[in-house]
From TrEMBL:
Matches recorded under PANTHER family: FATTY ACID AMIDE HYDROLASE
Protein name: amidase
Family per record: Belongs to the amidase family.
One Pfam family cited in the UniProt record for this chain: Amidase
InterPro entries for the chain: Amidase_CS, Amidase_dom, AS_sf, Endocannabinoid_amidase
Species per Swiss-Prot/TrEMBL record: Mycena maculata
């Protein structure tokens, strides 16, 4: 175990003991007893309860048992709410027996929440021992809304230290691994949510996203997610590692096992002001899509996409064409600028605020470059960038390196102007030029990455960061699974004319990161993206995409157990 101060270590050990004790309250998972409940979406659960076929207590018991099983497999749970959940289910059953009325559209549905969302009486440590033993005094706005709709929180889930990584490890609760293969990461920062949902340990989840944190873990674990645009869902009562930072807006959003369940969340949450009154005053808007939609698609962006990720995009486009929709290949303007803008703005204080919560905790290895690289003197970074561009022929990494670091106010404002100009460029060269309804894009260049990869492969997030920079609503849909034959490396990848350092790590050398044999059977997803403020349209287009791809592709409730090799 990392050497760190006794007080921090004691707090971490106490939190883990508390978690173990509370998990022990659960019934043991039984496939015959609990399995049928796990094969239902959140919407189907409500329907079965309404028809008197199930009770909320039966549903909660099944998901509590399964949550423990999922945790034992992946280490995904932080806070355990089983005692309260059982009582809430009993209360709902009593209420329904007396009135025959549902509490709301999530009556009796077990939900989970990323650790940062406050729940009265429970910590929101977000991976910092210094936040342990500081229970929240009130529920986050989104928790209040979901409870009022009849949902029952059963657990909170793990996050990476600082919540600024697409891995999921911290000193308080340890590492969460991928539910399909433990040598790979579950993604981050909403990684615990994705792992739990992929194993049917919850019926609906809540995460957040500032650079891909809803979409990357959903893709790695094979579930559905939706990143709303800014100002649609209240963020009040949510822990934040960079309070006051608004240059790139963090948003809360749903994670689940069907598009329908994501939509149910948005119907409940959109435009409800809560305690801040800081939202766009627009409730969920029902709309009807045109019969024929026009999609743009691309597979390569900042980094050359792997064969598996390229295939997922092309298969999605082909499926949409087969349903009568138009799909055209597009090129996104200036990928380097979009990533530089994100890096330049997010590092403007040298990540000092981001890292301040670590205190005496050990630094997770995934944050080594962020913690130490951005603090280097500017002349050293400029020299390193020059060397990278001159000797390794990697202008992209060199540009990102020049973008990092502390900035005076005037320079920070200049970066904000660059962000706004990039938004104008994107709108002009993508939405206006091609008259698109939506975009189909890879979530990342890789279907998965092994644990410990974030330190050197941070730029993989460029494909999700783009849609945070331009404030587009974006959903994640699982499409297919890695096939070692279909997704083998060909000359298209081995003979890249000017591979970047990251592309060399992904596709070249004795042990490239991309290994379709090791990744066999793991999920591959796409993003479905829309214009700013068109959140409802994106959800509607996700239904279209999901339907076009077909229901028998191995994703959704009950599919983790149905895999060919569930413990491979």
């Amino acid at each position: 175990m990392w050497p760190f101060f006794n007080e921090s270590r004691a707090l971490c050990e106490a939190k883990r003991r508390q978690r173990t004790e509370r998990l022990a309250e659960a019934p043991k998972y039984s496939a015959s007893e609990h399995g049928p409940f796990l094969k239902a979406t959140a919407s189907e659960i409500v329907g079965r309860i309404q028809r008197g076929e199930w009770t909320a207590s039966e549903v909660i018991s099944a998901y509590i048992a399964r949550a423990v099983f999922a945790h034992e497999t992946t280490n995904c749970v932080t806070e355990v709410l089983f005692t309260e959940a059982v009582q809430q289910a009993k209360d709902l059953d009593t209420e329904f027996a007396a009135t025959k009325q549902l509490r709301g559209p999530l009556h009796g549905v077990p939900i989970s929440l990323k650790d940062q969302f406050d729940i009265t009486g429970y910590d929101s440590t977000i991976g910092f021992s210094g936040e342990a033993q500081k229970p929240a005094e009130s529920d986050a706005d989104i928790v209040k809304l979901l409870k009022a709709a009849g949902a029952i929180p059963i657990v909170k889930t793990n996050v990476p230290q600082t919540m600024f990584s697409f891995e999921c490890c911290n000193p308080v609760f340890g590492r969460t691994v991928n539910p399909h293969k433990p040598g790979f990461t579950c993604g981050g920062s909403s990684g615990g949510e994705a792992a739990l949902l992929a194993m049917d340990g919850s019926a609906l989840g809540v995460g957040s996203d500032i650079g891909g944190s809803l979409r990357i873990p959903a893709a790695f674990c094979g579930i559905f997610s939706f990143k709303p645009g800014p100002l649609r869902v209240s963020y009040a009562g949510t822990g934040n590692t960079v309070p006051g930072f608004e240059a790139i807006v963090s948003v809360g959003g749903p994670m689940g096992r069907s598009v329908e369940d994501l939509e149910t969340f948005c119907r409940i949450a959109f435009g409800v002001p809560g305690r801040t009154h800081n939202l766009a005053p627009v409730l969920y808007r029902q709309l009807t899509l045109p019969q024929k939609l026009r999609f743009g698609y691309y597979s390569d962006f900042y980094i050359k996409a792997s064969p598996a990720n390229k295939r997922a995009v092309l298969e999605t486009a082909a499926a949409l064409r087969s349903q009568g929709h138009e799909c055209i290949e597009i090129e996104v303007p200036d990928p380097v600028e979009s990533f530089d803008v994100f890096v330049g703005l997010s590092s403007a204080d040298g990540y000092k605020t981001l890292l301040s919560g670590i205190g005496s905790d050990p630094l997770d290895s995934s944050l080594f470059v962020i913690a130490h690289g951005t603090g280097l003197p500017r002349f050293i970074k400029l020299f390193a960038a020059w060397c990278t561009e001159t000797f390794f022929k990697d202008a992209k990494f060199a540009s990102a390196l020049r973008s990092t670091g502390v900035k005076p106010v005037r320079e920070y404002l200049q970066w904000t102007v660059r962000r706004d100009k990039y938004n104008e460029l994107f709108n002009s060269e993508v939405w206006d030029k091609h008259a698109l309804d939506g975009i189909i894009a890879p979530v990342q260049a890789m279907p998965q990455v092994p644990t410990g990869s974030f330190t050197t492969l941070f730029s993989l997030s460029s494909s999700t960061v783009l849609f945070n920079v331009v404030n587009s609503p974006a959903g994640c849909i699982p499409v297919t699974k890695v096939d070692p034959v279909k997704d083998a490396i060909t000359e298209e990848w081995t003979e890249l004319p000017s591979p970047t350092l990251v592309e060399r790590a992904l596709y070249f050398g004795q042990k490239p990161v991309y290994d379709p044999v090791a990744m066999k059977g793991m999920p591959v997803s796409v993003q479905v993206v829309g214009k700013k403020w068109e959140d409802e349209k994106v959800l509607a287009m996700m239904h279209v995409v999901d339907s076009a791809l077909g229901k028998d592709r191995g994703f959704g409730p009950g599919n983790w157990d149905a895999r060919e090799n569930p413990f491979e």
